[in-house]
Amino acid sequence: MPISFVRPLLLSCLVLLPAVMPAAPETPATPLAAFPGAEGFGALATGGRGGEVYHVTTLADAGPGSFRDAVSRPGRTVVFDVGGVIRLASTVQVASRLTIAGETAPGEGICLYGQSVSFGGQQNIIVRYVRFRQGISGDRGKKSLGLDRAANIIVDHCTISWGRWDDLGITVGSHDITIQHCLLAEAIHPQSFGALIDNVERVTLVRNLWMSNESRNPKAKGTIQYLNNVVYNWGITGLCGGHSAQARSLDVIGNTFIKGPSSNDRWAGQFLASDHVYQEGNYIDLDRDGTLNGRVAQRADFHDPADTKYTLPTFVSEPALRPAIPVRVTTAAEAYATIVAEAGCSRPRDAVDRRLIDELQSLGRRGATVPHKDERGEALVGGQPELPRATAAKDTDRDGLPDAWEAGQGLNPRDPTDAAIVTRSGYTHLERYLHERADRAL
Question: Do the beta carbons of residue 306 and residue 90 sit within 8 Å?
Answer without folding.
Answer: no
